[in-house]
């Protein structure tokens, strides 16, 4: 294959890859319109919520013994490190266990963490299924009765006001590293 043909194949590959990446983003945006969330006060979340600020999402559950508290503690610390810039973000805990995580439970749970702009949302069963598909979240209920746990993926996702994924991080990312990246995202806009 000569250089010209190789360049043409490469260009076609890049265009095809870009198309499929864009299609995935469009698919997420379309699916997102049909998701339903309950806020800690028991009211339904208005769709405009997502377009008001960038969202920093973490999926977990309130009975989680380790990963979730660490991620939410780092959310709080990140918001404190960012100072006024944290007002450009919403730090959102989405429960993977709406069976136990009632709005009241979530409201009480997130009060245990430092910082500001932290809210918790509970999706209905259909929305939870769509969310786990959209983000590729592994979620498995382990055990029976009241003492079950949810084994789950441990990632943080940053979405812009148009629901485009800007970044993702391992759930155990330090507050300093997360704050640095979020600060870069804000400064990149200006």
From TrEMBL:
Cu cation binds at residues 64, 68, 152. CDD domains: SCO (cd02968). The keyword Heme does not apply. Coiled coil: none annotated. Keywords: Copper, Disulfide bond, Metal-binding. Disulfide bonds join 64-68. GO terms for molecular function: metal ion binding. Gene3D superfamilies: Glutaredoxin. The keyword Disulfide bond applies. Belongs to the SCO1/2 family. This is SCO family protein.
């Amino acid at each position: 294959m000569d250089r010209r043909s190789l360049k043409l194949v490469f260009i076609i590959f890049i265009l095809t890859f870009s198309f499929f990446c864009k299609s995935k983003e469009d698919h997420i945006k379309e699916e997102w319109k049909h998701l339903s969330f309950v806020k800690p006060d028991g009211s339904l979340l208005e769709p405009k919520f997502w377009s008001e600020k960038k969202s920093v999402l973490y999926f977990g559950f309130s009975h989680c013994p380790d990963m979730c508290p660490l991620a939410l503690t780092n959310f709080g610390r990140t918001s404190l490190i960012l100072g006024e810039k944290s007002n450009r973000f919403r730090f959102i805990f989405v429960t993977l266990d709406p069976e136990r995580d009632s709005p009241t439970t979530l409201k009480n749970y997130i009060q245990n963490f430092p910082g500001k702009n932290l809210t918790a949302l509970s999706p209905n069963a259909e929305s939870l299924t769509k969310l786990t598909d959209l983000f590729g979240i592994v979620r498995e209920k382990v055990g029976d009765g009241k003492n079950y746990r949810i084994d789950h993926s441990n990632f943080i996702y940053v979405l812009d006001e148009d629901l485009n994924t800007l970044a993702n991080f391992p759930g155990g990312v330090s507050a300093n590293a997360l704050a640095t990246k979020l600060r870069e995202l804000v400064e990149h806009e200006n």
